Write the structure tokens for this entry.
Amino acid sequence: KKRKRRKMGSEVALEDVAVALHNTLTGNDVNAAEEELKVYSQQHNYASLLVDIVSDDKYESVQHSAAVALKNFIRLKGMLIQNSEEIISRLLTIIYKIESQPVARALVTSIVYTIKTLEQALEITPTVMERIGEFWEEGKMNQIITALRMLKGCLRIFLGEQYRQHEEAQNFIAQGLEGCLDLLEKCGSPESYQIQKILLGMIRLLTYKSTVDLLVKCQHLLGSLHKGLQLTLSM
């Protein structure tokens, strides 16, 4: 499809972005569609339009493309994006409603790209941990996977050299390790295999990146940790 470019800021603009995304996948002139998206990305509401697309199942065929475009846009622009806080707030609202793992994973990465400070990670982490517990009780496997990836992004911030000695960061690292080990023991069904893989990756990350002092605080977990690390070596 070819469309005449319209001024951004209307409902038509949303359709134009969706069509350009569609044409990058199936159009005869992919290069032209990619150039069109570059033009749209200069508009102040480009990121908002991409969030609109991933939020609306009407655009299911291009939702993954929109999520990847948003991830790349945020990686390049970061918090310089206009209305960035509103965009992240919207993403935090919708990520657990998305069943497609490729789409959800790209959106989680978009959010994680914006977490630059200890304060941001401290604000997001408690809610993410609560959601993991809720989703496990409800048996929502896709949502658990999404929430675990969110948690992993936050824990990476805590494990950074500039923050790992911070008391609150250490507390969340310890809680994260304990929670991962606890959840790993509950993963027995074939449906939970993907969750198990993510948990083992997080346990490996937390163990290798943690300080000796922090591991001493977690010595009551050594038995479970030993089993977890044995599993990571066997996969």
About this structure: The chain has a mean pLDDT of 83.
